[in-house]
Specification:
alpha/beta, phosphonate transport, membrane, Phosphonate ABC transporter ATP-binding protein, ABC_transporter-like_ATP-bd, transport
Amino acid sequence: MLEIKGLRKHYRGGGGAGTPALDGISLRIAEGEFTAVLGPSGAGKSTLIRCINRLVEPDAGEVIWNGKPVTGSPPEELRNIRAEIGMVFQQMQLLSRLSVMTNVIAGQFARMPRWRSLLGVFPAEAARQARSALAEVGLSGLEGRRVDALSGGQQQRAAIARVIMQQPKLLLGDEPISSLDAVNAERVLALIARLHREKGMTVVLNLHNVAMAKRYASRIIGLTAGRITFDGPPEQLGEHELKRIYPPDPVGADHSL
Ligand SMILES: Nc1ncnc2c1ncn2[C@@H]1O[C@H](COP(=O)(O)OP(=O)(O)OP(=O)(O)O)[C@@H](O)[C@H]1O
C-alpha cells in the first residue's frame, strides 16, 4: 500500500511563484493497482511522482510505503526503500556511455554490496538475469552496445529491462512513453502491463495520452493545478470529467482522445 497524506510542494524561485506545484494531495494506492496520472502541462504530475521516492523533497505531508515512512527516513533507510521502487523516466535515465549490459545490471545495485557496483564486479548470476531481461524486452544481442548508440525506443526498453532486473514492488513512471513513436509507446506500455500482471507490481505512471491511460490503467487520477480533480476507474472518465481535468486553455491543447 502506498499512502500519500497532505503532500505539498511549492518550488521557490523560477517561474510559477504564486501557485504550489502540489496543493495538499492525499491518496491511497493499493498493492497491485495500475494507476495513471493525467493532467495538463504544469499540473504537478512529475512533482507528485518524484515526491513519492523523494527525488523531489516535499515541503509538507507524508509518503508511506508498506507502512514505512519514506518522508523523513534517514539516507540508509531511504536507500532500502528505493530498492523496492523502480523508476522509468521520459529520457536520460541510463548511463549513456556505458554498455546496455552494465545499465541493466545496475538495476540490482541497491541490493548489491557497494564495492561490487563501484568496481563493476558482478556475479555471473546477475549477468545471466540481465541477458534474460534483455531477451524479454527484445534487445538480445545488444548487450555490449553503448546506450547512446541505441534508438529512443531501444533505450526505453533497456530501462524496462533494468526494472525487470531490479524487481521492484512499486514502479513509478514519469511520462515513460512521451518521447516514443506510437509503435514503441505501445510496446513499452505493454511491457509494463506485463510486469504488473505477472509480477503483481504496483504501477503509477504519468501519461499524456488519455486513450492509452484508459486502455492500460485500472485507476485514473486527474491532477489539475496541484489538486486531484478526478479519481476513479477508466470507465468513469468521460467528456465531462476530462473537461474538469483539462480546463479549456487558449492554446487548445490536443489531449489525444
Ligand atoms: N525545479 C523547479 N523549479 C521551479 N518550478 C518548478 C520546478 N519543477 C517544476 N516546477 C513548476 O511546478 C509546476 C508543476 O510542474 P510539474 O513538472 O510537476 O508538472 P507536470 O504536470 O509534470 O508538467 P508536464 O506535463 O509539462 O511535464 C509547474 O508550474 C512548474 O513550472
